[in-house]
Write a structure and sequence with these properties.
0% helix; elongated
Length: 124
């Protein structure tokens, strides 16, 4: 199994920046590979939505609402994914969840894992 630990959320004024981090670690066995990692968010009363995702080859996908403002990156050596959020808007307020498609030494196929979420609040 894999544990994803998120950090970096908080309160920021509109126009400000935050940097989210998510570190993956295996609770059983060891991580063999991480095919993709990403960030999703969920605002009250709304469905969870994709914010940004990055594959093992570095291909990135962004929601239209954040493109040009957010940047996703990963550090394979540390099994960590980052989300640099600039020019934040009040509508970015949500709980942000880290997601990883991870293969471990105790699994035969890559599986999805989720972090517990970190709150991002943008005030106007």
């Amino acid at each position: 199994q894999v544990q994803l630990v998120e950090s970096g959320g908080g309160l920021v004024q509109a126009g400000g920046s935050l940097r989210l981090s998510c570190a993956a670690s295996a609770t059983s066995g060891s991580i063999i590979s991480i095919n993709a990692m990403g960030w999703y968010r969920q605002a009250p009363g709304k469905q969870r939505e994709l914010v940004a995702r990055i594959t093992g080859f570095g291909t990135t996908i962004y929601a239209d609402s954040v493109k040009g403002r957010f940047t996703i990156s990963r550090d394979n050596a540390e099994n960590t994914v980052y989300l640099q959020m600039n020019s934040l808007k009040p509508e970015d307020t949500a709980v942000y969840y880290c997601n990883g498609v991870v293969k471990t030494s105790t699994t035969f196929l890559p599986s999805d894992y989720w972090g517990q979420g970190t709150q991002v609040t943008v005030s106007s």
